[in-house]
Each structure stands twice: as C-alpha cells, then as structure tokens.
Amino acid sequence: MADKQKVNKTQTVREYLKANRKASNQEVVEALAKKGIAITTNYVANIKATSKKRRRAVKKVVAKRGVGIPEIKAALGLLKVCGSIKAANEALAAAYEIKEMV
What we know:
Elements (H helix, E strand, L loop, with lengths): L8 H11 L5 H10 L6 H25 L3 H14 L2 H17 L1
Helix pairs in contact: 2-3, 4-5
C-alpha cells in the first residue's frame, strides 16, 4: 500500500485565494477538486471569514496605535520565536541594554 502525501487543505485554499482573489467558494472547491483535494464550500467560507477577521483586527490596531503592518508582523514573529510575552519582554530588555552600550 502506497503512502499518501498529506495535504494541508487550509494552506492550499489560502494559496488559491491569494492567486484568485475574486474566486467564489464554489470555484475554489471545483479548482481544488481537479487537483484531487476534496473540500466543501462551507470549509472555504470559514477560511475566508477567518482571514477577514484577522485583517480587520490588524487594521484596527494599526489605526489605534499608529504602527505599521511591518512592525506588527515583526512583533508577532518575536512572540512566535520567544514563545511567551514574558520571554519577548526579556529579549526586548536585553536588546535595549545592548543598544545603549553601542
């Protein structure tokens, strides 16, 4: 029995939507079905709604705080690498200390 390659359906849908921004849910389902990926229109709708929610949240923070999207992405990357806000704060404190020395 041959091993099936696992496909990340969510990532595949996001990539398709990135390439085809105006695609309807049904168009996404049909296009991915041609590639052998079975999903439902509701699944595509959920992925779209989640991405819109994230986009609105980012825009809200950008407007409120006055920081840009690159800064927010960098901060999220720092949190991802550090694992917690406490560790990120410690890393930032160390960075400030190094900056003052230089």
